[in-house]
Specification:
oxidoreductase, alpha+beta, metal-binding, heme, membrane, three-stranded mixed beta sheet
Length: 532
């Protein structure tokens, strides 16, 4: 884990033709599989603001602007170096670097408590600006950027509330997906891991988001994996056009046409299912019967909407993109890191056998997988989705306690460097699966859990915009990892590494990384019997 992160230049994005799914076309036609996806997810859903935007222009900047020595500045390859330079030149104070759309303020971590819950710093405005609020095709991002709506309520309320009820469904679908991708071969076989992890998580999540009607529908799975990629490509292309022409140009951009096809296909699949549920509910009520309970997001969206209109197709894409792509990136990193630490694989396996063997597959049992939880949190500390989280846009002049003023209209992110501070973490560059386990029962207990956030650990963001779905996601990921760790051995394939690629602020699990996998001949605990 001590080798430097790799930095690469992006290639031009590939667009799918009408006859070819976008995800498949990306895998076949670009060597940087998933670059657009990884940047998009980090930008949108965990409080990342990749592209600056929104301010500066000819105005005098409130903070120093850090520039690259010499020519040829490129945000995707130079951003981290500019943040390091600014941190050295202006310790403990804000500064600007050039984002792709203008100056972007970098706020030091010692000011995070002033930033994290400030009511005049908006995350939603960053999404609306970057993803062309109101334009056809981007409806899922419009839904995401509206705080307090049906989507946010379901994520924060229903998903967390019903975790204990749906664990069996999660485990069943995880078993199916892993078997589909890895099979039963007890000999070592090479696999490209990130597409498999994305497929597995998409299937498991679809079981909860859509129920059994669509969770194994291959067309929907392709749509749910591809929509976010298509949206990022379209958003990026429009950002290259003059602002006043974008609403006209979006009708002619090939990427925007692709995005609208994804939108239309998503609605065509989802709406008949929703209409069928509504008709069944009306029929049951007319007959004096209790309507069936499905315990999935289709039901929960209907319940929270309470008769109000909402976009059933795009809200499913919004929740799928919110969870699936971020979770797949994290899980890929976890699998690759554990491939370098087989002793940790075995320790966690023994913990799973001991805890689930005694307590069953329950929410409480998953919470008691403390070493697994610690290893997950350590993975996120070393390889977060973004090194500069907590994107905000100032809606008013912001006066901080130390006298610093952030002008209205300033886009900003936090410098997340405390995650590697030797003042907070012993040997901070090393992977220590027990690090947060050792914090349990100490004065750091409240920072020891995977779901907890802190100024020194912003993997889920921090403050009022911290990821609301992290409680559900934690249980979902633990179920998948329990299935994987109990049933399979894995190691890095020759030539592959656990190191992420660097794009701007993002640390991207490589789409090309390969592992060797084999089905274990002896499985100490039949987890499928627990979920039967």
């Amino acid at each position: 884990m001590n080798s430097p992160n790799q930095s690469v230049q992006p290639s031009s994005a590939a667009y799918a033709g009408p006859e070819q799914p976008l995800v498949s076309s990306m895998f076949e036609r670009t060597p940087l599989l998933g670059l657009g996806l990884s940047v998009a997810v980090a930008t949108i859903f965990l409080g990342k603001f990749l592209f600056g935007g929104g301010g500066g222009g000819g105005k005098k900047l409130a903070f120093p602007l850090v520039k690259k020595d010499g020519d040829g500045y490129n945000f995707l390859s130079d951003a981290l170096k500019m943040v390091e330079k600014g941190r050295s030149q202006h310790p403990g104070m804000p500064f600007f670097i050039e984002g792709e759309n203008g100056p972007l303020a970098i706020i030091p971590p010692n000011m995070i408590d002033d930033i994290r819950s400030h009511e005049d710093l908006s995350f939603h405005l960053t999404v609306r600006e970057d993803f062309h609020d109101g334009m056809p095709g981007f409806e899922a991002f419009t839904i995401t950027s509206r705080g307090g709506g049906v989507l946010q309520t379901v994520i924060s309320k229903q998903l967390t509330k019903y975790v204990g009820v749906i664990l069996n469904n999660l485990s069943d679908e995880a078993a199916y997906a892993l078997h589909k991708n890895f099979g039963d071969d007890t000999e070592w076989r090479e696999h490209t891991i990130k597409p498999i992890i994305l497929d597995t998580i998409s299937r498991v999540a679809s079981r909860i988001f859509l129920g059994e009607d669509l969770c194994r529908n291959e067309e929907w799975l392709e749509l749910s994996k591809g929509y976010t990629i298509a949206a990022f490509m379209a958003a990026r292309d429009l950002r290259q056009r003059p602002f006043h022409l974008r609403r006209l140009m979006q009708w002619f951009e090939p990427s925007c046409k692709t995005l609208r096809r994804y939108r239309d296909s998503s609605r065509a699949l989802i709406l008949p299912i929703v209409d069928k549920r509504r008709a069944l509910r009306r029929e049951c009520i007319a007959q004096g019967k209790a309507p069936p309970v499905f315990n999935d997001c289709i039901d929960w969206f209907e319940e929270e909407a309470a008769g109000r209109d909402y976009d059933a197709g795009m809200i499913q894409q919004a929740i799928a993109a919110t969870g699936n792509h971020t979770s797949s990136d994290f899980t890929t990193k976890f699998v690759l890191i554990l491939a370098e630490h087989p002793e940790v694989q075995q320790e966690i396996r023994e913990e799973i056998v001991r805890v689930l063997g005694a307590e069953g597959l329950t929410k409480a049992a998953l919470a008691n997988l403390k070493l697994l939880d610690s290893a997950m949190k350590e993975t996120q500390r070393l390889q977060p989705l973004t090194t500069s989280p907590m994107a905000r846009m100032a809606t008013k002049d912001i006066h901080l306690a130390n006298g610093v003023c952030i002008p209205k209209g300033t886009p900003l992110v936090i410098d997340g460097s405390w995650r590697l501070s030797p003042d907070i973490y012993e040997n901070p560059l090393e992977f220590d699966a027990h690090r947060f386990l050792k914090w349990r029962g100490t004065d750091r207990e409240n920072m020891a859990h995977f779901v907890s956030t802190a100024a020194s650990h912003t993997g889920f963001g921090h403050g009022i915009y911290a990821c609301p779905g992290r409680f559900f996601a934690t249980n979902e990921l633990k179920v998948i990892l329990c299935q994987l760790i109990l049933k399979y051995d894995w190691k890095l394939a020759e030539g592959s590494t656990a190191e992420p690629l660097v794009f701007g602020f993002n640390l991207d699990a490589s789409w090309d990384a390969k592992i060797m996998v084999r089905r274990r001949k002896v499985v100490e605990l039949d987890i499928d019997a627990l979920s039967a």
